[in-house]
Amino acid sequence: MLGKGGCLELLLVLLGLEIRRSGGCPAACVCYPSPMTVSCQSHHLLAIPEGIPEESERVFLQNNRISVLLRGHLSPALVTLWLYSNNLTFIGPGAFEGFAQLEELDLGDNRQLRDLAPDTFRGLGRLHALHLYRCGLVALPSGLFGGLHSLQYLYLQDNQLAFLQEDLFADLANLSHLFLHGNRLWSLQQNTFRGLLHLDRLLLHQNRLQSVHRRAFHDLGRLTLLFLFNNSLEELPGEALAPLGALEYLRLNGNPWDCGCRLRSLWEWLRRFRGSSSSVLCEFPERSRGLELKELRAEAFAACSAAESLHQVKGARLPPADKAAPRDLPPPHASAEKGGPRHRKPAKHCPKGRNRTARPASLGPRKEEMQDQEAKLGFELLPAGPPKQKAKCPRTSLLPPSGVQQAAGGLGGGGARPAGAALLAFLLACVAIVR
Fold first, then answer.
1. Which among 91, 360, 405, 412 counts the fewest CB atoms within 10 Å?
2. What is the pLDDT of residues 152-203, one digit of tens each?
3. Which is more confidently placed, 373 or 108?
4. Residues β-bridged to residue 282
5. Which residues, in sequence order, are CB contacts of 325 under 8 Å at separation 6+?
6. CB contact at 8 A, 83 and 61
7. What is the CA radius of gyration of the chain?
8. Spatial strand order in the sheet of 177-179
9. Please, are residues 364 and 63 in contact by the beta-carbon 8 Å criterion?
10. Where are the beta strands (DSSP E) in 321-399?
């Protein structure tokens, strides 16, 4: 006759689950097979637990108190690693060396991380999602994203970034989503976004932007969504938006627009734009205060000379003292690589179509999904449905790891399972045996 323990084991077999015995899985963790998944979240861990199986492909360590990540702490076999909501302050040299299979890395919500070495992510050629939101980052060193040819999603929102190096994203030819909102950026330079040939969404709202170079978006011909609302923009050259031939959604509200001669080029561009745009309310001059820029008549700009109405960038204005770039950053100036290539071919190192990881309900929700942001901001945004897929690399839908999905109650895709009635009868029999 089955005892209580035997009944539980048989039930796990019927459900297709397995819990590793002591010695094969760290004490604070639960391990699932095929593919090997280790779940150690929310255990107040102060360090990476020892004994994580070397064949582990998915390791979940979120919501702990881990402060340091060093080389050798984790196995290079990893495909997915979640370390969000810890106390990370330092990532050692070579911590991810040899992690050639890694596809998703979540280091978000580590608010004391602040600094990253230029080679932190070197060699992660298959990485397709990198989460660095709410990490207290003050600067991003040149070369930080070098070689990440497969990256499609980059989350940098809610940090303290005041300046972006030119060509910082030059290697990210397959990037489709770039989240930079909630930082302290005050200027966009000529080559800030050079190389992002397949970018689909660019979120720059809730920064301190005062100036946008007329060629800041020159490589973004496939961009469909651009958010610049809630900044400090008084002007924006229409020439800056001219390369955005695929743009569908533009948000410019919440800026102190000066609807004088310097905004004439934006007025002309908006009148031709056929996508969805927010209101652009004039703050200056006094006679135009509260008026919608797009509704102004041509007579409002009749007194403007050609030199005034044709926007010329005279150089970025320096921000106030509290908005200045950190001292260790170079001043904003034109790129020294005047003869360098302006266009890069899309990388051929596309990630393979593996069963990539979505955040299952049992492991906590993804806190930075776009729809959550839209609800908090309280304005209409996008139609339902996924964004247009324009990158050369085929996008594989994100699925939860099979073991975790089953543990959360989902049995789909796991092969044949006993019928619901038979399973219920078996459970009732177990209860009777235990009693």
1. 412
2. 999 999 999 999 999 999 999 999 999 999 999 999 999 999 999 999 999 9
3. 108
4. 257
5. 162, 163, 186, 319, 331, 332
6. yes
7. 26
8. 30-32, 37-39, 58-60, 80-82, 104-106, 129-131, 153-155, 177-179, 201-203, 225-227, 249-251, 276-277
9. yes
10. none
The one-character DSSP state at 10 is: H
Cut 0.85: pTM above it:
no
**6 Cβ neighbours under 8 A, 6+ residues apart:** none
**Distance from C-alpha of 190 to C-alpha of 340, rounded to nearest angstrom:** 13
Tokens at 304, concatenated: 């403007």
The CB density around residue 33, as the number of other CB atoms within 10 Å, is 15
Please, which residues have CB within 8 angstroms of residue 180's CB and are 6 or more apart in sequence?
Answer: 156, 157, 161, 164, 202, 203, 204, 207
Site of tokens 């924006």:
236
| Whole-angstrom distance, CA of residue 413 vs CA of residue 422 | 19
Spacing of C-alpha 11 from chain mean position = 39
Q: Per the structure block, which two tokens stand in for 194?
A: 């050079």
- DSSP per residue over 132-143, as a string? -TTS------TT
Structure tokens at 163: 């300046």
Instruction: Answer whether the bond into residue 418 is a cis peptide, omega within 30°.
Output: no
Residue 378: name the closest of 274, 293, 251 by CA: 251
- Alpha helices (runs of H) in 212-292, residue ranges in sequence order: 238-241, 264-272
Q: Which amino acid is at 420?
A: G
Residues 6+ away with beta carbon under 8 Å from 390: 176, 198, 200, 222, 246
Q: Tell me the C-alpha distance between 39 and 289, whole Å.
A: 56
Q: What are phi and psi of 9, to 5 degrees?
A: -65, -40
User: Looking at residues 110-121, what average pLDDT do you find?
Assistant: 95
Residues forming a β-bridge with 82: 60, 106
Residues comprising the chain, all counted: 435
The three-state secondary structure class of 325 is coil
Interatomic CA distance for residues 389 and 394, integer angstroms: 8
For residues 32 and 38, give the distance between their C-alpha atoms in angstroms, rounded to a whole number: 6
Query: Which of these, 163, 170, 161, 222, lies nearest to 191 by C-alpha position?
Result: 170
| Burial classification of residue 179, based on how many CB atoms lie within 10 Å of its CB (0-12 exposed, 13-18 middle, 19 or more buried) | buried
